Structures
1.
Amino acid sequence: MEHTGATKAPYNFIDLFAGAGGLSEGFIQAGFSPIAHVEMNPYAAQTLETRTGYYYLKEQGNLDIYFDYIKGKISRDEYLKSIPEELLKSVCCETMSDETLPGLFDTIDDILTEKGIEKVDVIIGGPPCQAYSLVGRAQSSHMENPMATDPRNDLYKLYAKFLKKYQPKMFVFENVMGILSANGGATWMKVQEALRAVGYEIECHEQNSKNFGVLQSRRRMIIVGWLKDSGLSYPQFEKKTSNATVYDILMDLPALHPGEQAAEYASVEASEYLKETGIRKESDVLTHHCARPNKPRDIEIYKRTIELWNDGHKRLNYNDLPDELKTHKNRKSFLDRFKVVEGDEACCHTMLAHISKDGHYFIHPDINQHRSITVREAARIQSFPDDYYFEGPRTAQFVQIGNAVPTLMAKGIAEGIARELNLEESDGKSPT
């Protein structure tokens, strides 16, 4: 799929371990043109196909077809028939392994030939982070196959093989903070060795999504690599701040009680933050705004949790609940398992894929709604635009969103990468 601007995007990219496409979306918004997305999860791959169709139809001036699809007026099959097959082929739903790599290379080579692309500019993406996660590591000690022996620890080797094959000018490898300490630091040493062995200099720095205009605190390690002797370096990312609060991404959405849903915005006028970031546009239709049903016991706990937060930003301690409301046997850890989204602050706590389980960690701040947040609200916290449609059942949608790189963070990273590449070109340097 080509970028939809007036001119062809100056740089292209391949997205590995693409998930639902948060990182890709940011790069596209920054003017990059995607070559291919590789993602093993079928629902996430379908989401990527749907988004690919969105950009194609936007370019053709036929977005009505897209909106008919997300409104449920036409079937997915009918929708996909409006998208050229060669574009859909760019979404590779495949588990990356030594066995599948030759086929993936063949597919991508065909795309490069069809598009007349001689050089891949950037490779982005990061292997699934669970294997490096600090929380996951703690929870896995009792498992039959603990995180220390998780085969996902070695997925970076496949990433390195893509770098060796296509030799992009730069790459972006995103992961959780725990990658530095996984297996006592041994994994990180091996990652560095593998990336340097295929011809790259690398740097790794902590970045927080709140510094990219996202209304969420989300700490990630952003590893950037560049071809040796290219004159490139780790970008200086522009810090973006706003006067908005988290309420600014919630207030135009209709109030819901548990089990209710809505398909119309509560307010025609979006907040300045939503308009400035492009999260909501005038043409948007509301999707994915459906609240989970909740048991009366959970609703009572939610009310208590919200009351405490509103009373001086206090957090609920699970052990302080009346006995009749306690159902968990674990009374020593995860005592903050019920948590309100910080509506009146500049950013909320980190969105997690765990929201797919129960939503207790992401309670809407409005006590009159006493519910967990919807898929659309979670997507907004991750700065996905409202016209971004997530495929699959609600559980799968939450997983896709929770695992994603926030779009605005990805856009800021992409802009930094573009500045580096622009400087390289203006200096007349050519990577070896």
Note: Strands lie at 12-16, 33-39, 91-93, 122-124, 170-175, 200-208, 219-227.
2.
Amino acid sequence: MEFSNIISLLGIFSLTGGQAIMIVVGLILLYLAINKKFEPLLLVPIGFGAILTNIPEIGLSMSPVEKLIYADIKSELVFLMEALKSSSYEDLLAIIEQPTAEQALIIKNITYNLGYNPGILYTFYSVAIGSGIAPLLIFMGVGAMTDFGPLLANPKTLLLGAAAQFGIFATVIGALVLDHYGLVTFTLKQAAATGIIGGADGPTAIYVSSILAPELLGPIAVAAYSYMALVPLIQPPIMRALTTDAERVIEMKQLRVVSQTEKIVFPITLTILIGLMLPSAAPLLGMFCFGNLLKESLVADRLSEAAQGSLINIVTIFLGLSVGSKLAADKFLTAETIGILLLGIIAFAIGTAAGVLVAKLVNLFSKNKINPLIGAAGVSAVPMAARVANKVGLEYNSQNYLLMHAMGPNVAGVIGSAVAAGVMIKLLS
């Protein structure tokens, strides 16, 4: 083989500008995870998955039929077009995008016989996200690591968690406004999936987008997890801008001791009530409450340890790589992606602000004052948002530890985002 032919086989000569950009994006995510410690358990696999999926030629995130199209072998394309009775190449692509059950079977058989296999990242995505199992298992693990005690000890904080979900519905409206003015094209389902970013809840965002707008899963997931990771940078300026010095130093009373019976009864009751009123929210909230019940029952320690340890770690690896597989240059570098990223940070800011403002409103009618800083923890970034509230509080009163108080609205935010997701799915799916 001639030297020139050997050189032509190198992947670098097939690298597109878009792929190079997305590899840089992957490196930035790795930098934020490793150097800045921003959500490293998620950003490391997402960032590395983005790098892998944009390596040319190999097609790690491609389905068998996508590999066939990418190979661009005329005889194979003609054979597939004849089998699907497509009149043109454009018609073929349209069929592949939304095939009927019969067409999907034909595509599967032909690609298999021609020797095309799914890329490993595509397989991860199909199993972890395409089936919907990964976000639900993540929710179970988070539930097993969650203490409902602060919420039960101070039920008023439920209002703060609910208020922070305002960012979700504000984002839906924002997406529809962008579509109305022709800046970005969003369907109602895509707008709803984008809106979930405002809840700062990665698994919920993935779950909803996989049902309502799977084509936008990559940018939605990246936006959700990126803003979760950037909580320490985004929230403090908003918290300071909306509170006075006197409000920031408010010391809250010590929480009452919540009995073990309350902790056992609560997740069971919550699952039944929400399940009966809003069945579409039952998968997310049910797994969250089940994980919590494993922990609080005190009779399933091995299961609880598995849910919050080995199982959630394994699922996180697959989930992160699956999200990274959706960061292919041709699908990510679009106007919709830019719109989603902009709407995401606006939604997150609105959710943070709403939580703080509602805390101030509650104080107008409450004898026992709430430090408004904990309202920012109403977004679902557990436990990062609660830690940020505690950190900002300590800056103004070194003896004022708000962490446990902030966990109340933080947990309420998880419940609120799951309910909001259920509403979206119920109305639009």
Note: Residues 64-117 form one domain.
3.
Amino acid sequence: MTASAIVTASSLCLITLLSTGLPIAFSILAICLGYMLITGMQPDIAGSTMFWFLNKSSLVAIPFFILSAEILSRSGATDALVKASNVLCGRLPNGLALVTVVAIMVFSAISGSSVATAVAIGRVMIPQLIQNGYKARFAVGLVAASGGLGILIPPSIPLIVYAAVVEISVGDLFISAMLPGLMLGSMLFAFVLLVGDWARTKKIATEEKLFDPGDRRKALLMGLPMFCFPLIILGGIYGGVFTPTEAAAMSVILATLLSFTIYRSGSLTEYSRILTQSGTMAATILIIMAATSVLSYILSYEQIPKAITTLITHSDISPIVFILGVNLLLLALGCFLEIISVILIVVPILLPTLNDLGIDPIYFGIILIVNMELAVITPPIGMNLFVVSAISRQSIGKVFQGALPFVGVITVGLIILILFPQISTIFVR
């Protein structure tokens, strides 16, 4: 069977299975086992492949970062972060919308997840934005789009997954993602500053009083641990104090201490729920990764990546043309698959071509993640659309309409990152 036939048949089967509602992990495993039965390949290869892929210490960071974000989102930490951000930005034009962006950027540097960030900040900010005269469409769109920073600003769970697939340093990826993350966050901040008035049905004179922080010093002191949290974790990684995996464990310890000592909102019953939810989320991600590793093995066995590399190199395609084509592919796949699946399916296929064309895998990783920022706010599978719709009780259509202007901002940022690779690699090269 030719490479094109295998890819076409697998894609059609995957689409068919997903349309039935079968979870992505089971859909992929069904395709792989079907292929093994047809070709006579030993099915036990699937088990050994999954075990080999998951037997990486770097992946331990995933459940730890998820747990840390869940602890903080269920404590008073999110409220403290918002109030402190309000003291810092509330006096600026469109201050409350700016507070949303700042709070999301800080929480992104803690959670590593766009969904967790959108939920944690959205629960607090969306009602307040609407109450303060912002259109509901703008409020939900702002949270959904800005929440995408959660997968770019370190510690990012998708970056950990990408590092595991490509077998490069997670720490280098985190360092590389800092400047692009700050750049995109600043672009969203500037956009809100400029167009915020257009998105309002009424204007309240003093947005800073909305949360009634009372004593400004007290609000800042309560929010200070949340601003220091990412500095401790990321500073420890960059300073060589601990590895990304150790940093993830440290984030759980710090989150627990903050919850019980400063924000005083934890209980054993609540922690049982937190552990259950975090464990379920982490298990889901790891199962998808394990299933996709089998698919990657089969594709490599059939020499699909080699065939693609040969085709591209013989076509004399330049690296920039290749990157542009891959961006279109990622945008298309992101409409139908969630982030982890896209990384695990696409990267093993394209990695030989990246090496052959001399494209830095760190640079490509950042480009891929920014594409996935667009994917989380793109129907029909855009996860941020669903979670923001659920917490705001607004339709998915309205959330998407509100996010559209921000899609343009992120797209401009993506183009800048494509044209200037040094933005992604300046601190690791």
Note: The chain has 20 helices and no strands.
4.
Amino acid sequence: MALASFAANVTMSAKDINEELGISITSMLDFQGAAASFSGIIDTETTEGFGAEAIEMKEFYGKTFSAGSGTYGTRNTHTIKYLTDAGAAQAWSSNQLIQCAENSNTNMSADTGFSARTETYHVDDYIDNDLTNGDIFFINATGTGKFDGTSAAVDSGGDGSRFYFDDTADDIVQVSSTGVASNVRSITPSVLTLSLVSKDDDEITVRATGNTQVTRTIRFYKDGSSVATKTADGGGGSDFNGGGVDDTSRTQDFTFSSLASSTAFALKARAENAVADSADSNTLNITTDAPPVSFSVPADFALSISDGQDNQSDTNTSAEIQVSLTNGSGNTTIQCQQPDHAGSGGTVPRLQVRAGTSSGVYSSGTFQNSVTLSNSANYFMIFQIQENGDNNNYPNDGSGLTQDRTITFTNSGVSNTDLQIAISVVNR
């Protein structure tokens, strides 16, 4: 059933509201308590600017009561804890929700010294012995007198709202001047969601995301073992935002380092404070990348024909060099960058290579611009510059200059171009 919708010539009485609430139609109506039993009355501004907590009869039109397990009109006893500082009551501020959840003064500055404070209030709770936004705190079980949650002092740095620890419900709660509960949440940290940020052959970076209002610590796990923790700024650290009423969605990254390559790891995170831990996050099963392919090449060197002979095409061959390959697979290609213009004799010289996987054994055969060899940890090779003509000074006739040519080593799509050979042909 629902209360009548607002319209011309439609009336509603306290009897109708009692009937919707499931209590005797002749019972005295607790106007504010009844308002708290319907969603959207005391927590929504619908009174032409008088504020969300202002109540008028028109707000009840069209409402439907959906009861929790509590009984409307009964006021269950709740044990409420906060602090005494310098003899005065002090609640926690909106940036001290971690301390509120822990019922502690950790990292708080006292005037003289904090002590614990415990009070008993009576809550018309939507769910018996629990808290729901809109529940009302009364001083007496009879419903006389509402707890003024703003009467306690509060530290600077927050927004001025007061938070309390409800030991009966294991919740923290903001209480207004009229005893109305808001910003209710469990003292147990919220479950985090873990996602992958990046990975390579020896590192994996993950991101924990979630509500950190009461999270002092985020703990990261690898293969079931704790490997690191991060601490909220509201909990005495500086790693992530936590402990504030606005910390409903925050992130914290962490990098698992010094990992084995090509290996699967199970990663997760957990939110913690001094009194409770969340359930574990989702588990990420991430495999590190294969180790990178890399070449080790010798230093640059020069290769010249320094006294070319007339009437013949001269050559000069280098000493053998060794190149090492790490984490390679499949074939390796060795490519010589060729001279890019004709020498004085009108032809373009050549720079070529012979190579193999054993010293002095060049399985590639004759000198070639490019050779391909099977996978090996080491390659051995010699290079040859060929005049390719007669009296073919290069790169400039009689200048004595050289031209750097790049030798490219490629395996598994990875190329190395560190080796440069300075070539020249000088005829006398």
Note: The two ends are 112 Å apart (CA to CA).
